[in-house]
């Protein structure tokens, strides 16, 4: 049987590489379009039968799994892929993951599931049975295996960046990642040529194995149990944890590298992975259960990318809540991706992440010990970029939304600053940074007028009101500071004296309503996912 599977795999790979249409594929593989139903139904039934047969040799099941993946990646979104939706492969995939002889193939199995779930995802969300299976499964053991395989693989992806430039303070990553990594093609997993320039250094990154982020996202959004399992490692006593770095921390670390290098090579692939990571982070912070853990559980500080200037300041404490690292990741995105080809929606997602974090902190009255000044400066940098470069951006689509959401974030951060900032000094720093950026804030009125469309309407009035409040507070403290603005120490003292004497004296109209949920399915990642899956498998 092994030879037959190998022969069929080679045949399918050659045929599907020709970029045939759906009906041409049917004629080539079934002999005629009229026979396609019976041939493809028997084909999928046979594959599913072997894949789910726990008595079959592990090597044979692995070959069949690779054949299934090659086929689905090869047909992409062609109609012949629909036969894999008619047949329920989910039990067989779970069997591969949970059977001791085949659990080493978890990486491939969960990728197969993710590819199936992404088949015609945009127009078949309610029809694709795998989306329903992912949403409704309560198999915790299966999801833990998914987390295990993802963690090892994503750790290897991080190592690929560090092979180019080791930015770790100490070498803390494990040097062996087990069969999950050893089985992958070595030339696609860890081999990178010696860099000759900054652009060359990262042009092949992230490595293709990073595609395992896709099944993580597919489970994280719709399945509440998966989010709980993701949090399990954070709650384990350190002496009882044998799993090493929790998957959540690995995802955050990798995200920092993706965000820092997203725009450095002008690669649509690196941008796509950064967007996927942003969606994962947005999904995390919009989950209240997750937020309870990551805002109040202290863990060793998470390593973040330090490969481009300006680097982040070192963590305030050796142990801190993971939410600090998430905010740091937002700072990295905001800093390192300002260019003419502005990834507007990615920036909007980043602003939404910051807004959701601040809302949760003030809602739960949690004061976060964090380098807030880094975040404020990054946000003002974004607003300044928009105001000064809007005329030369390659696209202005969505820029109005980005500008309004950023102003909304700043207004909310100011209105509730006394609820989440850790000390009076951090509040004084915030006001001081507002005053220092007064010219940037004043430019926003003109920017909003320039970007306003015929449907801005009520939202325009609301945002103008928020901007007016920001400008009013800024102007008030600007007058108080006077000529001492250039002297930070004296200016901060005047801000502190005024706030301690009279408070912020903000206008009414603040809203504590929960912000709407913005996380959504990633619809356009399937093509890149299929290419990377094919590249990394043997």
UniProtKB/TrEMBL annotation:
The keyword Transferase does not apply. Residues 313-530 form the Armadillo-like helical domain. GO terms for cellular component: cytosol; membrane. InterPro entries: ARMD3-like (IPR039868), ARMH3_C (IPR013636). It is found in: Membrane. Keywords: Membrane, Transmembrane, Transmembrane helix. Transmembrane segments: none annotated. The keyword Lipid metabolism does not apply. This is Armadillo-like helical domain-containing protein. It comes from Agrocybe pediades.
